[in-house]
Inverse folding.
């Protein structure tokens, strides 16, 4: 993957990682209940789950590139429209609420499992990655190497964001209650912008 393409991918990863979702909600809850150190298990489980999903998407898309560039181009266009649709929904979404009664288990392995399941059981994440990854894949480069690059890059961004959320959970919860709607509009606008630009990136 060329450096300029990787930099665009890297910046886009941060934009996606900061958008509130099931994993961020779980990490926010666990951080408030157990502290950031113990919540590292939740973060690790979520990141591993997302890496698994990204790897499956990238390898499948790599096979699609080799089979038909026409279908791959069509998927890029559909993916851009899906990102725009996600952005519109996020723009209109209410602030994320946190229920501190959700988490009951305190063992690290249990927290890890909760993070992993929250990641792999979210169908929206699978659709998002299927839409997000195609513009950054090159049909002339190794699918396995590109898969490793995109999975590790996204994992790094997601890990940092989730750990920051866990460490700052006591401060973030009231902020989300006050400013969550404006935050959703900002992230929704970013998604719509990505949806417009990414299908045309080669």
């Amino acid at each position: 993957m060329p450096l300029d393409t990787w930099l665009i991918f890297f910046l886009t990863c941060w934009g996606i990682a900061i958008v509130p979702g099931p994993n961020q909600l779980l990490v926010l809850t666990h951080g408030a209940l157990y502290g950031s150190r113990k919540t590292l298990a939740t973060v690790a489980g979520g990141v591993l789950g997302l890496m698994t999903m990204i790897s499956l998407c990238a390898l499948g898309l790599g096979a699609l590139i080799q089979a038909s560039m026409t279908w791959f181009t069509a998927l890029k266009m559909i993916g851009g429209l899906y990102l725009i649709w996600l952005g519109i929904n996020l723009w209109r979404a209410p602030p994320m609420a946190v229920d501190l009664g959700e988490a009951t288990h305190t063992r690290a392995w249990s927290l890890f499992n909760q993070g992993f399941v929250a990641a792999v059981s979210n169908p929206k994440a699978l659709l998002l990655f299927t839409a997000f990854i195609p513009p950054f894949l090159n049909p002339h480069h190794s699918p396995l190497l590109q898969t490793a690059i995109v999975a590790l890059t996204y994992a790094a961004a997601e890990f940092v964001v989730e750990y920051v959320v866990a460490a700052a959970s006591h401060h973030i919860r009231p902020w989300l209650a006050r400013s969550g709607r404006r935050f959703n509009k900002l992230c929704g606008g970013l998604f719509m912008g990505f949806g417009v630009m990414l299908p045309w990136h080669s």
Notes: The mean pLDDT is 75. The first helix runs from residue 3 to 17. The chain is about 80% helix and 0% strand.
